[in-house]
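Exercise 7.
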Amino acid sequence: MTIENSKKIEQGKKTNANLVTIARRLFSQKGYANTSTEEIVQVAGVTRGALYHHFNGKKGLFLAAFDDAQIDIENSLLKILNKPGDPWERFLTANYTFLKACMHPEIQQIVAIDAPALLGWHEWRRIDAVRTTRLLKEVLLNLINKNIIKPLPIEALVHFIGGAANELAIWIAQSKEPKKALEEASLTMKTVLSSSLLRD
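Solution. The predicted structure, written as tokens, is:
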């Protein structure tokens, strides 16, 4: 690889990252429908051609912004799950953290509001499965293997908890009192999961 090619690749990565950062900010502030590609490229200081080269349009850029937001959520959960301490308490804390993350303007607008509406439920769930659903499955299998929770069918359990968490996240995001909704959602999840899953 020549020095010139290396510079082009590096510049391409910077342009890509810059577009995603700008898109996340604008999508979170104005929503997907009210954000134009013209505004994105103007703020990012690139041409429309650059946007279409990297992302094939506005929807492609939104998908990248959505994935980037999902990575942030996953990393925040991993920080908690990898700490020492009681595995069940870490799981409950991670669940609270996921719900709380959906109160952040970027996460709220992109992940909980625009993504399901733009992508449709099935596509949104497919993408979600790559990150948060996979992580949830790993955590639950670990809890089962350590005899902390009952050995229920894992796929059903993952979809039960993941579905409830996603629905609560959307409910919190759309609530007029998100802080109150967060506390109510967290209390409900903790109570239901503890009473139904923990071994006697």
